[in-house]
Amino acid sequence: MKKERKLKDLNEFQSWAKESAFVYPSSEIYGGFAAVYDYGPYGSILLKNIRDAWWKSMVQERDDVVGLDSGIFMHPTTWLASGHVGGFADVLVEDKKTNIRYRADHLIEKFFAEKGETVDMDKKTPEELQQIIEENDIKSPDGNELAAPRSFNLLVKSNLGSTDASFDEKNVTYLRGETCQGIYLNFKNIISTTRKKLPMGIAQIGKAFRNEIVARQFIFRTREFEQMEMQYFHHPDDTEKKYEEWKKDRMKWHTDVLGIPEDSLRFKEHAKLIFYATAAFDIQYKFNSMGDAFDELEGIHARSNYDLTQHAKHSGEKMEYFDQSRNEKYIPHIMETSVGLNRIFMMLLDDAWTEEQIENAKGETDTRIVLKIKKSLAPIKAAILPLMRKPDFQSKALDLKKSLQSEFMVEYDETASIGKRYRRQDEIGTPYCITVDHQTLEDNSVTVRDRDSMKQIRINSDEVMDYIKENL
Ligand code: ATP
Questions:
Q1: CA-to-CA distance for 403 and 400, rounded, in angstroms?
Q2: Are 328 and 443 in a shared domain?
Q3: Is the dihedral angle over the CA atoms 73, 74, 75, 78 positive or is it negative?
Q4: Domain of 392?
Q5: 367 part of a folded domain
Q6: How many Å lie between the centroid of ligand 1 and the Cα of residue 401?
Q7: Could you tell me the sign of the dihedral formed by the alpha carbons of 125, 310, 211, 209, in that order?
Q8: Mind listing the pLDDT tens digit for each residue in 15-48?
Q9: In the structure, what pLDDT confidence band is assigned to residue 168 with cuts at 50, 70 and 90?
């Protein structure tokens, strides 16, 4: 039996992700920039692979969903209509001594979790939170008194197109706090310029920005992140049926397409619904690196016809849809599935990262880090390794690389011993290492080593492309 270990905490996660070219802290040469991260050579490919997998399931393979790519900037009234200007807020509390700010709900949750109790902090007002803090004498993590909780708006303001003098509350523009508002604003355009009929969905992938209070959770909660959202427009009579279908579909995507084990995922129902919603569940994942705690990945929300009604009210445009099959005019109801690309990325690495005790060629115990990520999602699909740094090995290996790279991301590596090169590829999750050795020069065969079993087979180099395609 192989001995295995998973990531022990976020510190180990973050330093490994940096060393292996997945994620770098932002602006490091200037001392860093809180709650923003940059994605390195392997990280950026993994992000792309996740985006592609989501788009394929959501748009390409469905008949009832179309795509959209709307602007990050929108008319400022969008955010008044959506309720974000008035109500998109977290409640913060400040440590009276250090002036460090914390989310009040998170501090309270942590206080009770340490006593082995769970509390529900959904949608509590600053006054309710203050009462809990006082009744339980909750202090800051540094043991200091806390100031009274207050609301803190999460929208990020911009001075786009305005002079400094006019940069006031009336003229302010915002970086979008969620991507779905761009979908609501384009609903009418899409209905009138495509032949789509309800029920139908609009899907979009893009950046969103939130002035989050405290992060310190690596890429779990950042101020700039990417969302993959789908808004499904339908008749209110269909809500229940469609909701169940989407819940099932989305969970299946996490298990089947991403390869996450079922027992690391669960549904969590919101304890308190926002006034217009009729159902809200989150999909949560159990993060090894966050103390085996379940936390939110994706939200699935039945939002009634609130969004379109609000935009109709603020814009004066009619948002009704004439449903020919029912001979009825109505403002469509919306169901959304909203997932953070960066959280999926974090889950995939958290689930895949494994430290294994293995036996090396000499029969000794060795340690390797292997990223057991689903092969189809791995950043690099194959590494081509010449056994020796000699011209005939090198040119064979480079030819093979050339023949594969029109189809897959492949890497060529001729530095260090073959064992070290295998370890490097294991650590970034490369499914196949292909070695050009003495025999290749004689009969054109190469060895193909599997990342998980570490077993090698020998095949003709002309067959490598098909072999990889068949086994991804
Ligand atoms: P939370 O309760 O964690 O603050 P939320 O309920 O406000 O999140 P939504 O507004 O429903 O989140 O956003 C949908 C998805 O977008 C979340 O499930 C998450 O995957 C992602 N997301 C939200 N905020 C962030 C963030 N600051 N950083 C990274 N991903 C985020």
A1: 5
A2: no
A3: negative
A4: 380-471
A5: no
A6: 40
A7: positive
A8: 999 999 999 999 999 999 999 999 999 999 999 9
A9: low
